[in-house]
Amino acid sequence: MDSEQLLGKFITVEGPDGAGKTTLINGLTAKLEASLKVPLVLTREPGGDPIAEQIRRIILDPANTALDPRAEALLYAASRRQHLIHTVLPALTAGHLVLCDRFVDSSIAYQGYGREIGEAGILAINEFATDGRQPDLTLYLDITAEEGIRRIQANRSEADQNRLDVETIDFHQRVHQGYQVLREQYPDRIQVIDATQSPEAMQDEALRIVQSHFPQFFA
Ligand SMILES: Nc1ncnc2c1ncn2[C@@H]1O[C@H](COP(=O)(O)OP(=O)(O)OP(=O)(O)O)[C@@H](O)[C@H]1O
Ligand SMILES: Cc1cn([C@H]2C[C@H](O)[C@@H](COP(=O)(O)O)O2)c(=O)[nH]c1=O
């Protein structure tokens, strides 16, 4: 986020399904709070605001098999706008550290590449939704599509798998490819963490990256 009025910092966590984003965020939160000088705001996309959470339920409902790919992309962007305006920007204005599970990169990877809508169209609707705002730092959890889906199938009942989790392996491989393109486009913003490490090792690495990017936020 590069607006001068925003005193806080916006960190996103990205990666294929099953990469361990939720696990990382939970563990990293405890480690950050031990030494952070400012409040930490945890949030997620789609969701992170009451109306955005309602949109999330529509998008992820496995019963919504007829959802058109562009309608899906627009719903993610609508949810993102609501979340940005009502949760993220107020926290950044107040000087908080915002840690968000997914943001625009997910739309590029999943809708742009996974659904094969293309990067340009997804960028255009997200430019409108976010006024072109980008995270200050992105932690990308690096794992293959196959291993991510294996983890989900091994650990989540079918009833707990969402409409995207149950997509084909080809879809998840295209998503992974989309993330590789993003890593090449934004090598400074996107910091890569090997997601085949233990959860504890991943959390320690993430903490080191956040502290080195924003030392002013730590005691
Ligand atoms: N470093 C790890 N090594 C092995 N298994 C892990 C690791 N991190 C998480 N897992 C397991 O993999 C599964 C998926 O983890 P998690 O829910 O954190 O991923 P996620 O990226 O948030 O997934 P999704 O995007 O689908 O919500 C869980 O069962 C979790 O226990
Ligand atoms: C923000 C965003 C998300 N997705 C996908 C990625 C996941 O499959 C689900 C969200 O589920 P999670 O358990 O919270 O990771 O939605 C997407 O396709 N496009 C997006 O912009």
Automatic annotation (TrEMBL):
Domain Thymidylate kinase-like: 13-205
EC number: 2.7.4.9
A Pfam family assignment: Thymidylate_kin
GO biological process, one term: dTTP biosynthetic process
Positions contributing to ATP binding: 15-22
Gene3D superfamilies named in the record: P-loop containing nucleotide triphosphate hydrolases
Keyword Nucleotide-binding found: yes
Molecular function as annotated in GO: ATP binding; dTMP kinase activity
Top-rank EC class of the record's enzyme: transferase
Membrane spanning residue stretches: none
Keywords: ATP-binding, Kinase, Nucleotide biosynthesis, Nucleotide-binding, Transferase
CDD domains in the record: TMPK
UniProt keyword annotation of Disulfide bond present: no
Catalytic activity: dTMP + ATP = dTDP + ADP
One GO CC term on file: cytosol
Taxonomic superkingdom: Bacteria
SUPFAM superfamilies to which the protein is assigned, alphabetical: P-loop containing nucleoside triphosphate hydrolases
Function, as annotated: Phosphorylation of dTMP to form dTDP in both de novo and salvage pathways of dTTP synthesis.
Family: Belongs to the thymidylate kinase family.
Name of this protein: Thymidylate kinase
The encoding gene: tmk
